[in-house]
DNA sequence: GGACGGTGAAACTTCAGGTTGCCTC
DNA sequence: GAAGTTTCACCGTCC
């Protein structure tokens, strides 16, 4: 039997719990599944919570439910929040004995266990193939062992393949020093955003004060080479000016030396620049969206807009095109070429792969707004439920930003198109259901049910008979919906009366 | 004799995470 | 680079 399995079983025999860190999601899931087949615990009540988290249980949901009912779980970013909550809570309560996870659980949430088992300290990294993970990360994982309130100590176990690897692990991790912490400010998107926001909020009024401000940051402290740093900021500033988010006026004040002339020119955010900053958008993305807006016309549609958001930095990491999907994506690219709002890079361009990924991401969004469910998206595009939620949220935010920029640019057509698309993205519905979604408590499922029963707009809701509506939506919702269209029907359903009685009682 | 099913090795794929953005009825 | 997954040839069994 696998050493990991042995360790897991042994932990449970001691009536203790363990976290097992795996280097990939597939590995976490497989390990959990294997261990779950070796245990005899039974918590049938977890099954329902796990399966009901998504509108339709996906393969992943089913797999998790099979594991967790035996007290073993897997945990990674592809899970829905509800599922992650359940796993974390029940691990704390002691019912879930083993969690096989990716580094999700290493940082953030505090979930101590008696034993931490690290399957491998190597992980795939694009350039170098398999590579050692940072010492800092090892410490994060190992540090999950030993809960101060229950245990006097904890165990962190890593598995080595052979003696040589054992020695290397000991040297590198057990005796190793954690890496230096580096400022994230130096990343261009962050820098662009900060420069604009400093100018927009008036904290910084000219180049000189901007440089003074940055000189005090941790970034400058680490970077040391102020000349190079100023060069980067000059570049940022002229970019912001070129994109018309910032305007640079003539010199300000009389008592400046000739040398400082340029540096004292007042920098101000333009109207659109201010909005970009308020939206907390990366100026590069804002510029990109503005360019796309100007390309938008009556021949473009929701697909165009979905692709626009799919092709941003914020949407990354994108859904990856798999080997078998390559032809399909190519066909799609040719088919909908006319709808795109920006030029397709050349097939030899480095960016081309990402561009294909953006097309795949668009296809997923398109499926979603055409009422395909989580299970379909996972089977067709390989997006897991947890990622679906994250992507939809990002798309909504970017579309909101597009709407706002559209307003400033006085593009009513764009604003109108984006507004309805946002509702469709949020709810995952076709356009025909939009009218019904105006009702409270009506989402994609109920709206679809109404529509297929011939109730297609608010007028139909008014015309509809309460009993029929009740059959479609349930009595309480039906009454509520009727009320929303201005018909306050007095008939009180039995359940409500009971509720009221019990309220009076207590 | 042919359909089906189980087995295992070779061939092929793919590979963690998630800041905090906005507005609102 | 390695684990996980899919594919495919092979063999035995059953009808």
Question: What is the fold's blueprint, element by element?
Answer:
Blueprint: H1 3-13, E1 18-21, H2 25-36, H3 44-52, H4 59-68, E2 72-75, H5 81-93, E3 98-101, E4 115-118, E5 122-125, E6 129-132, H6 135-142, E7 155-158, H7 163-174, H8 188-200, H9 207-215, H10 218-223, H11 226-242, E8 246-248, H12 261-264, E9 267-269, H13 271-278, H14 283-295, H15 302-310, H16 326-335, H17 352-368, H18 374-381, H19 385-408, H20 412-427, H21 434-437, H22 444-452, H23 458-463, H24 466-473, H25 475-484, H26 494-505
Parallel strand pairs: 1-3, 1-4, 2-3, 4-7
Antiparallel strand pairs: 5-6, 8-9
Helix pairs in contact: 2-4, 3-4, 8-11, 8-13, 13-19, 14-19, 15-17, 17-18, 19-20, 24-25
The chain binds a DNA duplex (25 and 15 nucleotides) through residues 23-27, 30, 76-77, 102-104, 106-108, 120, 122-126, 128-131, 133, 184, 193, 278-281, 314, 317, 320, 322-324, 390, 394, 396-398, 400-401, 404, 440.
- Give the overall shape: globular
User: How big a fraction of the residues is strand?
Assistant: 5-15%
Q: What is the count of DSSP helices, taking H or I runs of 4+ residues?
A: 26
Number of strands: 9
Label the structural class. Answer: alpha/beta
* Order of adjacent strands in the largest pleated sheet: 2-3-1-4-7
Cα(first) to Cα(last) distance is 59 Å
* Unreliable sequence segments: 251-256, 495-506
How many domains make up the 3D coordinates?
A: 4
For the largest beta-sheet, the strand count, sense and barrel status come to:
5 strands, parallel
CATH architecture of the largest domain: 3-Layer(aba) Sandwich
CATH level 3 topology of the largest domain: Rossmann fold
Average pLDDT, all residues = 86
Kindly provide the name of the CATH class of the largest domain: Alpha Beta
CATH superfamily of the largest domain: P-loop containing nucleotide triphosphate hydrolases
Radius of gyration: 28 Å
Percentage of residues assigned to helices: 40-55%
């Amino acid at each position: 039997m696998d050493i990991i399995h042995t360790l897991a079983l042994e932990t449970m025999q001691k009536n203790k719990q363990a976290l097992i860190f795996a280097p990939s999601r597939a590995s976490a899931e497989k390990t959990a599944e294997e261990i779950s087949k070796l245990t005899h615990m039974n918590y049938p009540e977890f099954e329902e919570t796990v399966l009901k988290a998504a509108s339709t249980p996906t393969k992943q949901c089913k797999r998790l439910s099979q594991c967790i009912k035996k007290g073993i779980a897997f945990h990674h970013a592809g899970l829905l929040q509800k599922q992650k909550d359940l796993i974390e809570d029940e691990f704390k309560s002691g019912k879930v004995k083993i969690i096989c996870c990716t580094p999700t659980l290493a940082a953030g949430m505090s979930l101590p266990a008696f034993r931490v088992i690290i399957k491998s300290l190597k992980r795939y990294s694009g350039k170098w193939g398999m590579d050692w993970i940072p010492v800092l990360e090892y410490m994060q994982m190992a540090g999950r062992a030993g809960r101060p309130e229950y245990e006097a100590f904890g165990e962190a176990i890593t598995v080595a393949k052979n003696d040589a690897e054992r020695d290397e692990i000991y040297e590198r991790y057990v005796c190793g020093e954690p890496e230096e912490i580096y400022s994230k400010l130096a990343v261009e998107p962050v820098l662009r955003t900060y420069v604009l926001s400093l100018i927009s909020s008036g904290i910084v009024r000219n180049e000189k004060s901007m440089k003074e401000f940055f000189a005090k940051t941790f970034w400058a402290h680490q970077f040391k080479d102020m000349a190079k740093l100023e060069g980067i900021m000059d570049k940022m500033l002229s970019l912001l000016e070129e994109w018309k988010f910032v305007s640079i006026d003539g010199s300000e004040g009389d008592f400046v030396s000739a040398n400082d002339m340029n540096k004292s020119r007042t920098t101000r955010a333009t109207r659109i620049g201010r909005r970009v900053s308020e939206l907390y958008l990366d100026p590069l993305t804002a510029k990109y969206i503005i360019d796309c807006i100007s390309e938008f016309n009556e021949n473009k549609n929701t697909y165009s807009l979905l692709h626009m958001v799919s092709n941003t930095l914020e949407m990354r990491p994108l859904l990856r095109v798999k080997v078998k999907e390559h032809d399909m994506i190519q066909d799609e690219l040719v088919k909908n070429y006319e709808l795109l709002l920006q030029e397709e890079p050349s097939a030899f361009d480095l960016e081309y792969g990402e561009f294909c990924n953006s097309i795949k991401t668009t296809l997923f969004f398109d499926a979603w707004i055409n009422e395909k469910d989580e299970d379909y998206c996972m089977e067709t595009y390989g997006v897991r439920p947890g990622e679906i939620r994250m992507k939809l949220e990002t798309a909504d935010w970017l579309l909101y930003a597009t709407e706002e920029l559209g307003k400033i640019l006085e593009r009513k057509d764009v604003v109108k198109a984006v507004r309805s698309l946002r509702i469709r993205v949020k709810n995952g519905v076709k356009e025909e259901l939009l009218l019904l979604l105006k009702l409270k408590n009506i989402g994609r499922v109920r709206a679809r049910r109404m529509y297929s029963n011939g109730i297609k707009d608010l007028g139909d809701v008014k015309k509809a008979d309460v009993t029929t509506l009740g059959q479609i939506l349930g009595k309480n919702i039906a009454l509520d919906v009727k009320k929303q269209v201005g018909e306050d029907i007095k008939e009180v359903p039995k359940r409500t009366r009971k509720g009221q009685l019990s309220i009076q009682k207590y």
